[in-house]
Specification:
Blueprint (H helix, E strand, L loop, with lengths): L2 H5 L9 H9 L8 H68 L4 H13 L2 H26 L9 H36 L2
Helix pairs in contact: 3-4, 3-6, 4-5, 5-6
Length: about 190
């Protein structure tokens, strides 16, 4: 402590040792409070330590809650992905069955179903065109196979019955083709909604 602060108003510049001693007689020195200060320091340290413990516990609780929330969010995300996957598989299976019912090959029905699920209309139309060409060729071959050669002996019953059979076959195939086109139109209208 500086002497001028200790003497306060009694301080004068250039004081002699005797004047300082006289001035000090009237002044009482502050009491030693180091024990009290130490007690307060210890109390403050304990309080800070307790606060740090509570803060750590709070963070751990908060971290546990955050971990739990993150885990729940991850589970929800996985369930949503699984649901979307199942919906896609169900949609593809429905499309495939419809196309198999229209006479498409297993391979073509699967390709069309996947293309529809992916929104690839170009592939759907290409496969439909290929199917129509195959169906037309099949009808042509069936008609030629069942066509009888005209008899040379004037037996008209052979020609009439063969012609009727061909007409009947052509009508059945046309009906099947029409049903296939209706199913395709139904599938496409469902898809393009």
């Amino acid at each position: 402590m500086i002497l001028s602060e200790l003497l306060g108003d009694a301080w004068k510049e250039g004081m002699t040792l005797e004047e300082v001693n006289d001035a000090l007689k009237d002044i009482s020195l502050p009491e030693d409070r180091s024990a009290e200060i130490e007690k307060l320091r210890k109390s403050l340290t304990d309080s800070n330590s307790e606060a740090a413990d509570w803060k750590r516990k709070f963070r751990e609780t908060q971290d546990a809650e955050k971990r739990k929330a993150d885990e729940e969010a991850e589970n929800v995300r996985k369930l949503q992905e699984e649901l979307e996957s199942l919906r896609r598989e169900n949609t593809i299976a429905g499309y495939k069955n419809s196309y198999l019912g229209m006479g498409y090959s297993e391979k073509d029905a699967q390709e069309v179903a996947n293309a529809l699920a992916d929104g690839n209309v170009k592939t759907v139309l290409e496969i439909q065109k290929r199917h129509q060409e195959t169906l037309t060729e099949k009808i042509r071959k069936e008609l030629l196979k069942d066509t009888h050669r005209p008899g040379g002996g004037g037996n008209e019953d052979d020609g009439d019955s063969a012609e009727k059979a061909n007409v009947k076959l052509a009508q059945e195939m046309a009906k099947a083709n029409t049903e296939g086109a209706k199913q395709f139109e139904s599938v496409m209208s469902h898809y393009l909604k």
